[in-house]
Amino acid sequence: MAPRDDTPLAERVEELLAAGGPLPIVAAGRPVLRRGTEPYDGQLGPALLARFVEALRATMHAAPGVGLAAPQVGIPLRIAVIEDPAPVPPEVAAARGRVPQPFRVLVNPVYEPVGTARAAFFEGCLSVPGWQAVVARHAEVRLRGEDEHGRPLDEMFTGWPARIVQHETDHLDGTLYLDRAEPRSLSTNEAVASLWSQPTPRTAADALGFRLP
């Protein structure tokens, strides 16, 4: 097992930010993506936290992605950012429940399912570049935590926003989307674009031989 870095988190974040520009995204195989995270309890201080959040946002935009968790840039803190302009055709948006989400910061988030409904769609990850797979997730969740100013968060998410917050919160627990994916659905980005771009993965399920909920 790779040794842990005992450098204080504030120092590690300062070093990361010193390079400027988008932060390097950690790819699958690095232990930081699998060890879980420390609850945020002021380790960075307000000014450094604000700079770190802005760097996460810039990195998410540059990638581009709709969410980014601190472990994905090598920092094991329970912090993530999300933002989704939802630039998809109306029929895709309707099938997936994808609606625009403003930029938000999730600090110490936890989610729990609301009801038993599940929805399955292709999903990717900035830490697993080049691939996508179908993941069945809770169709509605209750997310609790705080924002970057310490204000409490207690909100219901449905559709695609529910998928985003589950994906990012999972990162904070050391879970990648592949852990929850249907293995037979694993496809390159190119295959998804050319073969499986339908609003739902029904065609892919029939052709590749996996079940949908």
Automatic annotation (TrEMBL):
EC numbers on record: 3.5.1.88
Q: Which InterPro entries match?
A: Peptide_deformylase (IPR023635), Peptide_deformylase_sf (IPR036821)
Q: Name one Pfam family in it.
A: Pep_deformylase
Q: Where in the sequence is the active site?
A: 168
- What HAMAP family does the record tag this protein with? Pep_deformylase
Q: Which reaction does it catalyse?
A: N-terminal N-formyl-L-methionyl-[peptide] + H2O = N-terminal L-methionyl-[peptide] + formate
General function of this protein:
Removes the formyl group from the N-terminal Met of newly synthesized proteins. Requires at least a dipeptide for an efficient rate of reaction. N-terminal L-methionine is a prerequisite for activity but the enzyme has broad specificity at other positions.
Provide the binding site for Fe cation.
125, 167, 171
Q: Which UniProt keywords apply?
A: Hydrolase, Iron, Metal-binding, Protein biosynthesis
Listed name of the protein: Peptide deformylase
- State the species of origin: Streptomyces nogalater
Binding note for cofactor: Binds 1 Fe(2+) ion.
The family this protein is said to belong to: Belongs to the polypeptide deformylase family.
Q: Which CDD domains match?
A: Pep_deformylase (cd00487)
